[in-house]
Amino acid sequence: MTRQTNRGRAAGVVIALTALMPAVALMSATPSFAAGVPCDSTLSPSEIKAVGISCRLAPATVVRVAEDLEVAVPEPGTVATVQLLRTHGSASPSAASVYRAADGQLALRIDGEAALGSTATAGALNRILAKPEPAGATKTQASLLAAAPAWCGSYTQYAFSGGVWVNSTYPWTYNSKSQPASDALQAIQYGFKFITDDSSACGTDWTAATSDYRGSTTRYTWGTRDNGNVVGWAGFDPGILGATYSWVDGSGFRVEVDIAFNNRVTNWFTGLSGTVPSGRYDLISVATHEAGHGFGLAHYTSSSYPVMYPTLGTGVNKRVKRSGDLTGMGVLY
Ligand SMILES: [Zn+2]
């Protein structure tokens, strides 16, 4: 009895939907490119031209900027950014951001170059990633940092990649899988401490930036948005030391950041000693750099003084926030 009643209702719903169909068909007349052929699962920068893409996005499309630099297309309204710290001598691109508009159009920015994509979509990417500096901020820093030694560089040597954390706090978890040594987490925690400290040997610049270590995790989802901020180890080409994956929402907030260090690098130095052995890559230095990305610092390429310079050599201790890194964190938070 009850069943029959339900069946009767279901039939009624089907009839009602059928009656609506002509109206629906009329309304969806022209989503132009969206009705076109599906995109390849891998897009090249040249496919994101001034006019935008002319295909319909596949479910898991990535934009391949270089053989070792790919950005997974994010959910609509957000920007995904990948930043690579390379070993010395590499000239490949070190950062790329992809914005996906609600209509499926994409914009792409490689390093600091002008964004590719339609005027509207590239403009939206630039707006989301723009961070206005408070008036007078750099003036204050100039006087605070004036006495720093030459190797600290200049207080103007910083750049932002876009987006800030709500409450100035970056919460993260650690996945120890394939870590090179049992003290790796300790080294990474020092990196987060050094990037959020108010002062360094290069001066003082107050920052509200805080990192919040929330323990270990077994998540393993680098490059994929899963609402968990995972720091850990992944396998990259030997010329890459670390990678940061960031997602920024339409309001300019950082909503997820994953950081992966290269588990294929066989000569990590994970110790605390300030004297990094020759031929070894200092994990604390790399972690300080990646944590800088985690908070929103971009690569600074015009001078090799800042921690945020996009390459690092062996035997180098670069754990000290330089003048530009201090100012960048102070202005950002
Ligand atoms: Zn980097």
UniProtKB/TrEMBL annotation:
Keywords: Hydrolase, Metal-binding, Protease, Signal, Zinc
Entry keyword Nuclease: no
Domain Peptidase M10 metallopeptidase: 265-333
Pfam family membership, one: Peptidase_M10
Signal peptide annotation: 1-34
UniProt GO molecular function: metalloendopeptidase activity; zinc ion binding
Annotated InterPro entries: MetalloPept_cat_dom_sf, Pept_M10_metallopeptidase
A biological-process GO annotation: proteolysis
One cellular-component annotation, GO: extracellular matrix
UniProt name for this protein: Matrixin
